[in-house]
What we know:
Blueprint: E1 8-14, E2 19-23, E3 26-41, E4 44-57, H1 59-67, E5 73-86, E6 92-106, H2 118-123, H3 140-143
Parallel strand pairs: 4-6
Antiparallel strand pairs: 1-3, 1-5, 2-3, 3-4, 5-6
Amino acid sequence: MANDINNVILIGRITRDPEFKTVGQTSLANFSLANNRSYMDNGTRKDVVNYFDCVVWGKLAEVLKQYAGKGKQLMVEGRLEQSTWDGQDGKKQSKIRIRVENFQLLGGRPNSESQSSPEAAHSSLPSQTHFTPDIDEIPAEDIF
């Protein structure tokens, strides 16, 4: 079977404080990024904002919890992932989000000097520390 390409790289700002959960023994964080784009249309500047739902698992979710909150600029790398489930009304529901596999905090240092730097925390992670369960095996209410 062919292995198609599904890669996302996005820079944006976190729209609200991430929501954190534990599924089994694995941490998970849900958050949304606002991505702004400006362009010119007949000499007039136009601004467009798109919002993207994201999920991050494992050790990276714990790092996000420690260092990122509403308004923080973030670069995420990952892939698009579609989840489907049966709604309360019995109809099929679906949602596409970015499954974050790596991220980088942008736009400055934490306010408190007593905190260690996010770069140091991120660089100390082993390259394959996060658990990536098959999202179809987890009930939707545990993820969303």
